[in-house]
Amino acid sequence: MIFGDSLSTSYGLPSDAGWVSLLTQRIHSKFIDYRVINASISGETALGGRNRIDRVLNEHLPEIVILELGANDGLRGASIKSIYENLEAIIKACKKYNALVLLAGMQLPPNYGISYTQKFQAIFPQLAENYQIKLIPFLLAGFGDKHDFFLADGIHPNEVAQRKIAENVWEILQTMFQENQAVTTTDSDIE
Q1: One of 33, 153, 187, 189 is an active-site residue; which one?
Q2: I need a labelling partner for 3 at 20 to 30 A (CA). Which of 32, 42, 47, 104 fits?
Q3: Is 153 one of the annotated active-site residues of the chain?
């Protein structure tokens, strides 16, 4: 299940051009049994995600959650503490439902100031370390600083960038699938 904001909703693009759709195609080509749910909402904040995570987890019961939130909070200048605590609450909820978590790290433009941008960027590896979850260090790695990879708004990735995001996610997600299958296989062999 993808739990994110407009970066995960194909904002400004046809839905089949977004990274979630591209990732879904790849998952189905490798692991047919997985159902992919995109529970992302454009404009979502970590607080908004915190307020709805239990309902979404209860409805879908995912094995893996790709958590892609926090960027809108950072762009709005929310406190680092509140962003951390809201993402932390989402991670704890996922763990309560026995879902593995893949956290997508984000960065902010430099015009937010060195101190704030560094503290914001540090949220993601700190959460990954504290909760022993997988981390994509920077969801937009490989193009985040290149204007040609964004729509006219300069915020949302274009179609070419969507393929790169799908690769960035797949690089870590495939290891989670392999580990999850190994655990499932081991459990089946014991029975």
Answers
A1: 153
A2: 32
A3: yes
